[in-house]
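Collaborator request, handled under Task 6.
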Amino acid sequence: MASAQVETLFGRDAECAELIALLGHRDLGPKLLTLYGEAGIGKTALWRFALREAEARGLNVRSCHCVEAELELPFTALADLFDPLAPEDLFGLPAPQRHALGVALLRDDEGDDGPVDPRAVGTGLLGLLRVWSADGPLLMAIDDGHWMDAASANALTFAVRRLAHETMALLVTRRVPGPATGLPTNLVLPGGTSQVVRLERLSRDDVRRLLVERVGSIDRAHSLRIHEASGGNPYFALELGRSSGGRDDPDRSMPLPASLGQLVARRVADQTSEVRRLLLTAAAATRPTTQLAVQILGPVAEGALATAENDELLTSKDGELLFVHPLLAAAAYWDASAEQRREIHRDLAEAVHEPEERARHLALAVVGADERVARFLEEVAAATLARGAPEHAARLWELAAAISPSRLADARRRRWMEAADCRFHAGDGARAEMLLQRVLTESPPGRDTAEALRRMARMRYHDDSVASAVPLLEEAVLQATGSPDLLVSLHRDLGWAHASVGAVDVAMTHAVRAEALLPEATSEVLASSVWAVSAVVHCLAGHGADLDRLDRAVATQLMPEPLIAFDARSCRAQVLKWTDRFDESRTSYQDLRHELTTRGSEGSLPFLLFQESELECWAGEYATAARLAATGREVAELTGQRSHFALCEYVGALVDVHRGQVGSARATFEHLLQGPGESVASIQAWVHTGLGFLELSVGNAAAAHRNIEPFSDMAMLTGLREPGVFRFVPDEVEALLALGDVDRADKLATDLEESGRRLDRVYALATGARCRGMVAAARGDQVACRTAFELALQMHERLP
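Structure tokens returned to the collaborator:
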């Protein structure tokens, strides 16, 4: 049996010592050891050594051995890591995380909350790792990490990159060179230590010792020839020794295979047809078992199994069939003919019961178009997405599109669009856009074109390219005639997009149009986001805080919005913040942040953390603002959100200015002007006006004016009339007065105070009165100056 053949490790003393040190790791923080090496070099043997040592030392061991056949099935590796999983292990997790793990692992039903967020699965895994590590020493050992299914790999990567103080060891083996699948090759632990060990080939003496133990008596000349042919690769050497029976060819006429792959293929080819069919079945199945082999092969299965085990091709453990080495599985599968592979997949599709596995076999068995199979793949794709595995769902939808009959072009386009959404949510934006371009190329003018353009625009939002989304949405509106639901969502999106790039007057037109079309829409989920976005745009345009509309939006929101900017609760908190209701806004942001964190929806946090940290800075709670901004930067970096990283950096620099840390603040502002702040108008406004505030604080009025003045004019030209959004007008007034431009300062101060009176904005009234007092002082009007400053003091008492 293979498990007995690797008990003695030759030439691996140094690697064993590294593994023993890993298992003895007790320092604060996690530790990762990655074993790299070519096929057959002995990675799995060392992995098994680590498992035996860990169990002997009483560690809590969580392990999985990944195989290529499982790549297409979501969460198979995670299920192995969680086996066994006691119910009490989950008790300490928040309900959304328990639910996400339960749905992902097929323990619970999806429920009414929509598809599981993949980050919720990762957050739940992180919580479990913390529970397990708190109970005692923990080893998580993963063999052949390059074959880990994408859903498990993403969840595990999410979790381990957020480990900080947990005491645990993580062991991963990976083939090099190998496929670019599974766990990332650059997996690191920011909160711990990471180490890489590359396995070298064995020496001549070690190969001879290995052959003597595993093959039997062998003369030195033959072992030297095997070492030369194998290059010191232990599995290659064993296969060469086994194929020759330990005896050398006296005249050296017997050619040795040039590669391990060639030798393994020869071993498979030399078997009987029954054994080859058994090996093909085991290679094609996700979880091959003796029962499945009997089901496929019938009466000959027992004899074929005995032969395969005797020839050290397969082993069986608790009814599960395992290849002695992954190369044997590859040879058994790929050396079979295409028709033989399709035939075995057809048989397996009839034999298995798990929908994902059956879908995989049906897809690999079909030839040409088959709408019946395509529909089944589509059903399984939707269920797979609900489990929180968008990368696997995307693959199924693409397969369904590929076998869609030409007469059903609309179904094929729809499947491409669903696949694109899944690819995007799985982090493959390039593939997602390619699929949507395929839809646009094939679609006639109309709804499908509009829908593809809308989805492409949504992707641009997340890629920090809001401005490039606008023309896509405008073209989509022209194509969406006669589709009320789509038109409503497009006008809503355009309202938000134009507002985001500073075109508030244009945004207002689209927000009004979206609300006007709402009665014609049939979707129940649209109303909440339309009212919420409309309320935000109306507030920006200077029409006040329509809290009734926002409350109605919150009350009718049926489920969390995928885009946090459209979430009614987020929109309400934003309007409350702009309109000086800091306590209410703070509570709303804290509640929503707690919910998102608990649910694992980490992608929405940077936006909230920026808004909340800016609020705390305005409120003078600088320590809290700095902490929230730092957290926002950290999460934005982890989730790849460049613009929100920049915005959180801006708040951190603004806090530094208030604290008198001018040098660090200036460095941050100048760095931001060279980065993503260059491409997004709103970020430019924040950064330049923040830098203007810094220059004013050190007495450089000219530099302050250069930074603030363009955005002061832009706000009025684009229709931004809510004074609580960008709070730089008082700084510009002060800079203008220092430069002697009293008339311009007077106009800005008057406009600010008038908007405060019209909208009842305490901030605008307080700062407007102070500005009017400074203008009066500059004109030498002491009475007006005193009156204005007294009013300013009264108004400042009302500030939150």
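The cover message to the collaborator said: "Confidence is low (pLDDT under 50) at residues 1-6, 250-256. The two ends are 74 Å apart (CA to CA). Please let us know whether this matches your experimental observations."
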